[in-house]
Every structure is written in structure tokens, then in C-alpha cells.
Write a structure and sequence with these properties.
about 375 residues, alpha/beta, 5-stranded mixed β-sheet
């Protein structure tokens, strides 16, 4: 989830099909901690989480990056765009409840095509991710791949707001190598926060035309939970990995994407065309063009209302599949249970209670962002699932 991406007229980008990306797999140590647990194997510990940055709106260049500017009243927000002011709340949750696993990880197939899993937005919450993957039997107590031929897809947004976005990326990269060696795979999609971090690193304070005035990637990144520790630890290997991620994929009749928007249609009429166009856009390294890509990936709620099933079918007709599976919009926000910072504050009982993914739009869409940044839940789900 990201704020501060002004919306301008959408322009379909020409599709480039001659761009190919070499394979990438890097063995990077993961930050794995162990929690003794008897009789089951020890589960990784989940220490108190760092207090995330509050939500912001986009500044103009005339304002200091630490100030919260006023929304431009003349800004005409098109359908599907989430307002920047009082957008997704991030609460101060204090100590995090320890996650303990009471059962042995389930056995996995040793040959053939393994089961399919998807992971919602992580946003730097590495310890919660480790616990959730262990609970599903995808990693062992040391944080190594233990799922054999299983297939694991991350739906994007690895960094920002939480304490260790680079640690999350390192873990996903390492699991990709380990899963491939075991006959399975671990892959990831491009989220809007990957685009935001790439832009902040590449373009910094270079002015871009945001559609609501002049802005910069650096300011937008800071105002949307950018962590200095992530930027300090960001290396070329991380930048290369993020810039090569796919935007959309089809697995077992599930159309996987990060954002609940039809903006993907602006980038191609096939999955291959969309992915090629997005990667080529990043390769051209044009600040305004990258900003336009970023702002389109911040759109949300296309599948939520009465027209939602029709919007999902438009994507399915173009790219295939029987269901859309997405992250980006936290389930409490998607359901209208949380709409402002004030609504998220309060006692533990008033915080979002997320039990699992949200199936909606007539059963055609599955929301996977459990709202870990707002005291919700980091979701890891095996597919298919019942409505």
C-alpha cells in the first residue's frame, strides 16, 4: 500500500518483446532465530516489532520531506485511486505476541508438481514471515526450505514500514535457490513498494510530474514508510533482483498480481507483454515514466463494489485463469473496517481480526494482504481454497 502517487491520464505503453532477463539466484544468509518448543521442532522466535512510520500524503518540492503537506483541493481523483490523506493507518502496537507452533510440518511430495502457496504483503516483518512459513511447513526451524517440490509465490511489497525489508528480500532470494535445488520453486511478483524503493535509489530528489503537482521518489518513499536501515543495506544485487520481477503470472488457473487494479491492461494484452513492458520501462531509467508505472500500481479496490466481478473478468479474459489473487489492499481496509488512523487506534480488542484470505467479487477474487502493518496478520495460503 502506498500513498502520494498522483494520478494523471493513463497512457498505454508500447509493448517491447525483445527484452529478456537472465536467471538470478543468489545465496544470501537469512536472519533466522530459533524458539525452543517441545514436543515439536523449535519455531523461530518473533520478537517485539519495531514501531512503523505513520501514514502520510505526498509532499511538493517546496515542502521539507519531514513535513505533512495539505492535500491539493483542486486535485480531481479518478475512480480507483485511494486518497493520500488518512489512507492506510499504521498503529502503534507495542509488544508483539510470540508465535508458537504446536505441530510438525506436514510432509510434502518428493516428486512431481508440488502444492501451490501464496504470500501476502510482508513490508519488512521478517520474523512474522519466518513464523508463517514455518507454520505451513515451507521452512524448517533453521529457516531452510523444507517443502520439496512445493511452489511458493510472493505477491510483492517486501519493504517499507516494517523493520527489516532487506532481510525479507535476502530470505526470499535464498529460498529461491534452495527450493530450485529441491525440485520446487520460490518466486516473487513486483509490488508498488519495490517500484518506490527502486525509484528512491535511482532518482532520489529528481522532480517528477506526479499528476497532483511536482514530487520526488525520495520524498514519497520516506512518507510511505521508507526505512533508512533498508536504504543503507541496499546493494546492487537487491536492485537487480527487484527490477527483474514479473508483474503478473498465471499458476493453476490463479491469476497472480500485486495490486487490485485493472491498470495492468495498460501494459499489454498478454502476461508476457505486461512483464516485458514493465521490465523495459525500468530499463529505460526515465524518472517520469517510472513514476507513471508506480502510480498505476498504487490503484486499488477495482474488484470491491458491484462492478468488481466485471473488472475481474476483464483481467481474466485478457490473461487467462479463473480467479484473481492479489495483495496490496489490506483486508480490513478493503472491507471498510478501518478507514482512518483514529479508527485503528485503541485496545487490542479493537484491532483488526484477520483469520485468513478474503474471497469476494462473486468468488472471483482473493485478497491476501492481511494487514501486518496495522496489527493484522501476515498470510501464507495454500491454493486452491474454498469460497
Amino acid at each position: 500500500m502506498t500513498q502520494g502517487a498522483g494520478q494523471g491520464p493513463e497512457v498505454r505503453t508500447a509493448t517491447l518483446r525483445d527484452f529478456r532477463v537472465p536467471a538470478y539466484v543468489h545465496d544470501v544468509p537469512a536472519n533466522v532465530q530459533e524458539l525452543g518448543h517441545d514436543p515439536a521442532p523449535p519455531a523461530p522466535a518473533v520478537p517485539p516489532r519495531a514501531e512503523p512510520d505513520p501514514a502520510f500524503q505526498e509532499p511538493s518540492l517546496s515542502q521539507p520531506s519531514h513535513a505533512e503537506p495539505a492535500q491539493d483541493p483542486a486535485f480531481d481523483q479518478p475512480d480507483g485511486y485511494t486518497p493520500t490523506q488518512r489512507d492506510l493507518p499504521v498503529i502503534n502496537r507495542g509488544d508483539t505476541v510470540q508465535v508458537q507452533i504446536d505441530t510438525e510440518p506436514a510432509p510434502r511430495p518428493t516428486d512431481g508438481l508440488g502444492p501451490l502457496y501464496v504470500v501476502g504483503d510482508v513490508h519488512g516483518y521478517l520474523d512474522e514471515l519466518i513464523a508463517a512459513l514455518y507454520e505451513q511447513g515451507l521452512i524448517d526451524a533453521e529457516g531452510s526450505w523444507s517443502a520439496g517440490t512445493a511452489r511458493l509465490w510472493f505477491l510483492g511489497d517486501f519493504t517499507d514500514r516494517g523493520p527489516d525489508g532487506i532481510g525479507v528480500i535476502d530470505l526470499v532470494m535464498r529460498l529461491s535457490a534452495e527450493a530450485a535445488a529441491a525440485g520446487g520453486y520460490c518466486k516473487a511478483l513486483m509490488g508498488n513498494h519495490e517500484l518506490l524503493l527502486l525509484g528512491a535509489k535511482r532518482f532520489g530528489d529528481t522532480p517528477v510530474n506526479s499528476g497532483a503537482g511536482t514530487a520526488t521518489f525520495q520524498a514519497a518513499w520516506l512518507l510511505n514508510g521508507g526505512q533508512k536501515s533498508d536504504m543503507d543495506r541496499l546493494q546492487d544485487v537487491h536492485l537487480q533482483w527487484m527490477s527483474r520481477l514479473d508483474a503478473i503470472e498465471l499458476e493453476d488457473d490463479h491469476l497472480l498480481m500485486h495490486s487490485d487494479t485493472t491498470a495492468y491492461l495498460d501494459y499489454g494484452d498478454s502476461i508476457e507483454a505486461v512483464n516485458d513492458t514493465v521490465r523495459e520501462t525500468l530499463t529505460r531509467n526515465d524518472a517520469d515514466e517510472c513514476w507513471d508505472l508506480f502510480r498505476k500500481f498504487t490503484k486499488r479496490f477495482a474488484f470491491r463494489d458491484e462492478s468488481g466481478p466485471e473488472a475481474v473478468r476483464e483481467l481474466l479474459d485478457a490473461y487467462g485463469g479463473a480467479r484473481v489473487v492479489h495483495g496490496h489492499s489490506p483486508i480490513p481496509y478493503l472491507l471498510g473496517e478501518v478507514g482512518t488512523e483514529d479508527a485503528a487506534d485503541g485496545s487490542e480488542d479493537s484491532r483488526p481480526q484477520i483469520e485468513g484470505p478474503h474471497v469476494y467479487a462473486g468468488g472471483l477474487a482473493i485478497g491476501m494482504d492481511g494487514g501486518v502493518t496495522m496489527a493484522g496478520k501476515l498470510l501464507v495460503q495454500q491454493l486452491p481454497m474454498d469460497s
